[in-house]
């Protein structure tokens, strides 16, 4: 099953969560997640993990989050539908959640891949899923080399009809810092001629862990999850204006959502 975003915003249905799920959301969610990832990995390892299966796994993860009380809202998808052909999605990176949920949101409408750190294709089990997506891998230690790789492989993907998802921050962080949000996505858009679609993301319901388990932090159903897609931007000139618009869009949305924590709203 997939979300039907053509009809408008998505909002998690209100439902009661039993005592055990409410008391131990992380335990019950990660038990479901491990099962979903293992099944997907086995299929990917055998070459049986096309986009449709990727989206199905993503949908199962969304439902697993909702089963422990996490509420999810998705706005602005009309802007994605307005783009003919591939594009560059540029968003803030708050937690692991967005990388797991975006496939279900985007796959029915946009074939896509991610720009990821190289270490993700070496993770036990999960690496098979990532490798099957033909991601653009960067080291995150040499910005010049990362830019070169992203521009080259990003152009190739876009010309082949595959959109590119970029999180310009060097790491996941719950507080958005514009100074840490580089313009690599805008540079790819300028070079390639394809539009940019901004994504504002509030996903701190899935906390960041530490050490070797940074992807597996605490699940907090008290924090609502938001995705919002902004208007497509075609880069003109050096791209500074468009980069500023993306930063402003993300900043405004995060401020609004934090002011109304626990409530489903957009302006």
User: Strand arrangement, largest sheet?
Assistant: 1-2-8-7-3-6-4-5
Mean pLDDT: 93
Structural class assignment: alpha/beta
**H/E element sequence:** EHHHEHEHEHEHEHEEH
Largest sheet: 8 strands, mixed
Could you give the count of β-strands?
8
Q: What fraction, in percent, of the residue positions are helical?
A: 40-55%
Uncertain regions spanning at least 5 consecutive residues: none
**Structural shape:** globular
Number of helical stretches of at least 4 residues: 9
Q: What percent strand?
A: 5-15%
Explain what you see:
Helix content is 42%, strand content 13%. By secondary structure, it is of the alpha/beta class. It has an 8-stranded mixed beta sheet with strand order 1-2-8-7-3-6-4-5, with helices on both faces. Helix 7 crosses helix 8. The relative contact order is 0.16.
Provide a brief overview of the structure.
The chain is an alpha/beta fold and 267 residues long.
Observed structural traits:
9 helices; alpha/beta; 267 residues
Break the fold down into its secondary structure elements and pairings.
Blueprint: E1 10-11, H1 19-23, H2 25-45, H3 51-67, E2 72-75, H4 77-81, E3 88-91, H5 97-106, E4 112-117, H6 126-132, E5 136-138, H7 143-159, E6 163-166, H8 184-192, E7 196-202, E8 225-229, H9 240-259
Parallel strand pairs: 2-8, 3-6, 3-7, 4-5, 4-6
Antiparallel strand pairs: 1-2, 7-8
Helix pairs in contact: 2-3, 2-6, 3-5, 7-8
